[in-house]
Amino acid sequence: MKKNLIFYFTYIVLLLIFIFYSNHFLMNIKHDYSKLSFYLEIFSPIVLNILLGIFIGILRLYEEFQKKGKWSINFIKIIFVTLPCLYCIINLLAFDFGIKILKFLECESLFFSLTLHHFALDSINILLGYSIITSLYKRECN
For residues 4 and 86, what is the distance between their CA atoms, to the nearest angstrom? Predict the structure, then answer.
């Protein structure tokens, strides 16, 4: 019980440290107006949110390490969750750069207001990271 408490406490502290330093990093990028900063400002939140999703799913991977068996990949999850998330990220980024890949992105609707657009992108990035890490599992050997 005590070992479990220490493990989860350490996990939440590391998660909070990750969130704090990610936010600090992103705020520092916003203060720099160079061309490199422009690309960092666009792609850093994507990478950091994917890493956050992986970090959130790492507990499930830790539980899989405890099991005996052969490592497998849940290809159904990859096909129906991970790939659509990746596709949405690419399309939302294309929308940011003015490239219209999907037909429904051509109309500027309320859905793609700046706030909702970035919230959707952040959520999809976190879901992408989480689905990547939770696609790995151990198959029980009989």
Answer: 34
Q: Which secondary-structure segment (H or E) carries 38?
A: helix 35-66
Name the 3-class secondary structure at 79. helix
β 136-139/70-73 pair status: antiparallel
Q: What is the length of the chain? A: 142
DSSP symbol at 34: S
Structure confidence by residue, pLDDT tens digits, 38-64: 778 888 889 999 999 999 999 999 889
Domain spans of the chain? 2-139
pTM more than 0.85 = no
Task: Please report the sign of the dihedral spanned by the C-alpha atoms of residue 51, residue 55, residue 60, residue 61.
Answer: positive
Q: Would you say 96 and 42 are in contact if contact means Cβ atoms under 8 Å apart?
A: yes
